[in-house]
Amino acid sequence: MKIAVDLTYIREETNTGLANYAFYLLKGFRENGLRDSVVILTESGFGEGFAAYTEGFRTIPAETRMLPFLPFTRGPLFRRKLEAVIKSEGIGLLLSPYIYDRSLYARNVPCIGVIHDTKLFYQGNPILRARYRIGAVRALNRLERIVAISGCTRDDLIKIPGVKTGIEVIHNSVVSNAGKLEKEVCNPPYILDVNTLLEHKNPLTLLKAFELVSREIPHNLVFKGSRTPYWDTVLEPYIASHSLSDRVELNETRLSQEEMEHLYRNADLFVSPSMMEGFGFTPIEAALAGVPVICNDLPALVESTRGLVTYYSPAQDASALADKILYVLENREYIKTEEIRGEFASAYSPSRQAECFAELISSVCGRRF
């Protein structure tokens, strides 16, 4: 049996985490000997930037346009073409690694889709929130199964009115070779946060905590992410007004995987103060690099980091975070980073994730995938 994997949501501007999720899943299918059973649907032009991640898979370019100002028309307009592809390729199931209000769907085969978090269900603009809820609930209820990336995301989905489809939990896979690299001596040493620079990711609390400890440590603070209006209007003015410009850095350079691994590996500490996550991807990447990690005790972060890293609370308490930063930096040699790295490498391997999906696909289709 073959499955089609919908990657039409991946474009150059696509959030890197959402793209990596799909690419790591494909890696797992490849490692498990399932490459010939997978057909990939992509937008035209996909090969210019992402072909290396899908090498060896059969890829079908597809244009999935929608009517202006009517984003929900994307699925219906492409459905007939999609169903023709499914028939000609002998596809038994459509898998969408990212479900949202404009997701594609098919009526002639079962569909499975992944939802990564529920924040768009609660966005501030009431018109956008209502439009998204209508479209997303419709998209979710077309599925045979919803896959949530954590138990916390599943619990949030259950609370959303109108969602009727069964929900399974399959954790992300995370790939990193950073733990195999030699750690370099950096001058100055640095504390790292890799996150989207938005208010709900809580970078301001980290900035305030760093200010409290900055006179006691030699470290700089490095934010890795793209510049956002929140950085320009809140974070950068705070940095300037508190005389931190020579100690705080924004790294907005587009880095290769190897460059990211070096950035992780050479940090003395990784901090994720985020107040909203479906899955704690970057703290796991940091732990796989052998770096001590501090997280807010958000349930999704505790779940994904398996209770193995250092936690602080409340989320916006800069003093509490500052105390943990000093504690971890002073006790780095006692933190069992290698044991944590080993457990995460086993728990979050692409092969294991792909095996979970294969079992789910087989149960939905009633035959082995």
Question: Could you explain the architecture of this structure?
Answer:
The chain has 369 residues and is of the alpha/beta class. The chain has 2 domains: 189 residues, Glycogen Phosphorylase B (Rossmann fold, 3-Layer(aba) Sandwich); 170 residues, Glycogen Phosphorylase B (Rossmann fold, 3-Layer(aba) Sandwich). The model has no long low-confidence stretch (mean pLDDT 89).
- Label the structural class: alpha/beta
**Basic shape:** globular
Which segments are poorly predicted (pLDDT under 50) over 5 or more consecutive residues?
A: none
CATH class of the largest domain: Alpha Beta
Distance between the termini: 6 Å
- How many β-strand stretches? 13
CATH topology of the largest domain: Rossmann fold
Major β-sheet annotation: 7 strands, parallel
Strand content bin: 15-25%
Helix content: 25-40%
Q: Indicate the radius of gyration in whole angstroms.
A: 21 Å
Question: What is the CATH-assigned architecture of the largest domain?
Answer: 3-Layer(aba) Sandwich
* Tally of DSSP helical segments: 13
Summarize the structure.
This protein has 369 residues and is α/β, with parallel strands linked by helices.
Descriptive keywords:
alpha/beta, Rossmann fold, 369 residues, 40% helix
List the helices and strands and how they pair.
Layout: E1 2-6, H1 16-31, E2 38-42, H2 47-50, E3 58-61, H3 74-89, E4 91-96, E5 111-115, H4 126-141, E6 145-148, H5 151-158, E7 167-169, E8 190-194, H6 203-213, E9 220-224, H7 229-241, E10 248-251, H8 257-265, E11 269-272, H9 281-288, E12 293-296, H10 299-304, E13 310-312, H11 318-330, H12 337-347, H13 350-365
